[in-house]
Amino acid sequence: MRKRLIPFALAVCALLLGVLPANTFAAAPEGGISPQADAAMEGALVYDAAEQAYYIVGECNGVQEYKTLVVALYKLSGGKWEFVDSAITCGTATHLDVQKKVSITKGSYQLIVSVTTPTTSGSFPHFYEV
How far is CA 58 from CA 21, 118, 130, in A? Predict the structure, then answer.
C-alpha cells in the first residue's frame, strides 16, 4: 500500500503545479520569485442629480506598487461600440480613484474599468441604459 501511495502523491503534486497559471509568480530582484499582487477595481456611470450631470468614476485598491487606472465609456451605435470619453490616473498609492464629467444622450453605454500593475492587468465592463 505504501509503495503505491508515494507515486500517487507525487503525481497529484505534479498535476497541481501544472494547474497554476504561468503568471502566478513574478520575477523578483536578484532572480528570486515573489507572489503576484492583485488590484481590486470598481467603476460606474453615476448621475449627480444636484448638477444634473453624468460622471464616469473608477477606483482600485492594491499593494503599494505602480498602478494605472483607466475608465473608458462607449456608446452602442449601429451595432458597434463607439468611444465617448475616458479618464486615467496612475501612481503608487494603495488606493487610486478617478472621475470625470461626461456629456451623454439617451442610449446604451458600456463602461470599461481597467487596472494595470507591473505584475498583472485586468478589466471589467459595466452596461447602462440611459
Answer: 27, 19, 19
- Which of 123, 58, 122 has its CA nearest to residue 86? 58
Tens of pLDDT, residue by residue over 8-42, are 444 443 433 343 343 444 444 455 444 555 678 99
User: What pTM was computed for the model?
Assistant: 0.70
Cell numbers linked to 37: 499582487
Tell me which amino acid residue 44 is: A
Q: For residue 116, what are the β-bridge partners? A: 68, 121
Q: Which long-range contacts (CB under 8 A, 24 or more apart) does 66-69 make?
A: 66/90, 66/91, 66/92, 66/117, 66/118, 67/39, 67/91, 67/92, 67/96, 67/115, 67/116, 67/117, 68/114, 68/115, 68/116, 68/117, 69/41, 69/96, 69/97, 69/98, 69/113, 69/114, 69/115
> How confident is the model at residue 10, as a pLDDT?
43
The neighbour count for residue 87, using CB atoms within 10 Å, is 20
